[in-house]
Design goal:
Pfam families: DUF4220, DUF594. The chain is built from 25 helices and three strands. The chain has about 525 residues and is an all-alpha fold.
Length: about 525
Amino acid sequence: MGAAYVLYQPVAIQKTLILPSLLMFGTGLLKYGERTWALKCANIDSIRSSLDVSDDRNRRQPYDGRVRTAGELDSEEILLGAHYIFNACKSLFTDDLITSGTEREAITTGIEFNGGKYMYELIEMQLSLMYDILYTKAAVIYTWYGSCIRVISPAATLVSFLLFELNSSHAYAGQRRNCDRTELRSRIAKKVGLEKWWNKIHYSSTIKISDSIRDLLLKEIPRRPLGDMRNARGRWTLQKIRYPGGGGSLYDEISWSVNDTDFDQSILIWHVATDVYLCCRRRQPAADGVEEAERLAKAVKELSDYMLFLYVVQPHMLPGPVRSTRYDNNCDDLVTLWEQHSTDQNMDSALTPRENLARLLYREYRDKYDDDDASSPAVSVQMEDNNPHGLAYIDAAGLAGMLLSEGSGIPDVLEMIAGVWIEMLCYATRHCSEVSHAKQLSSGGELVTAMGLLVEYTARYGIHGEVTTKNGEPGMTAAEVSVHLDSISITGATGEICEEPDGMNAAANGVSEDHGHDACTEGTESP
């Protein structure tokens, strides 16, 4: 019925597709009918009923006319014997061993040719034949109707392909006119109570680990002490960003989003904050270093998506408790928010729904603080009064608002977000049970398991210390990164960040590589 419905979609629009569709549908029925019949034949009762217990004295012996002086029986001759005596093997599987006089004669003759090893080889081949009956379609393939299917199926497929090619342009045009089938399937899944299962399957996929993620992990892991790799959850990265004059660190301001909340809530907050930041940040004009920044943005997005994938699809790979209700509540509220505002004039038709939703969250829930005072540290953005139910996306939008502000005082927001996600991934791999890691290998394994080995190898072989730049010269360790807001001035409405003659040298070297640019570089500002 499912296949018929899928075929109905193009056929209802383009009548010329009826014949190729029927050919493929008929072929599919034949093939799956053959499979079903093979399963029936593999039943023990069916095997019992197929036993031939009639008088077989007139059956031709497999080794009649075989001259003993010609040497031992070869594999093909033993296979003939295995087929001849196969009733005995099948009867053993039905708890009713049956052998006839002619079968015993064949066994005796085979032993005279090959000695005792004949029985061993005979049994091996018979078990192989029994496997074919129980677990393959051999029982129906080697029949007259099985042979007919072998001829009809490829012929029908070829004809259907040629007919489809002749009508492909019309068919594709028809499919483009047919609204959104994914939406229809989602509605059907919701109607039958399988919405959550459908969303997990439909909106998750397997991707190859990109070079961006690989390079980022290999660069960032060795920078951290072992204890922080295992337990920091973002604390190490945020503590390295400090405010001048004893103003504390960025961690003091947003620790609520990493260590002072449950790990599953922390994943949700940073996932939404990352998405809002990436959608709303102002991209730099083409220049040296922009390509590297986009590679980092891609890696950050992949890490963020991967951690949410673990949360939703593989919660056993995360340290518990992982509450699915938190995810469901946030999704339900976001759907409601989208339905309320999706027709607003503020929605940009040139943007994707994801980008429009991110901008909506930024407009609705970003925290309010003075952007004009660049010398003041960022304030805590957790909006407890505005978020009594603890919905992650509300706190996340406030966090993203701070990250998008020029007054945040963060030298490189993308590097900071990447550092937080890496520490969360390290925390997850350290606190996931060994049983979960081992069990997941049966499905191909996860990045979180590979990360566990990378962390332990890094710690065991002491791959820590100085960070080097691309040209091989030593740079500063991450511990030396600091923010000197008193040496930064923001000029004009373009958000240019200019460096004072004696300021920010250590910070600039520690945060990014020197590409020989002018001291004045373009900053970022919220849209």
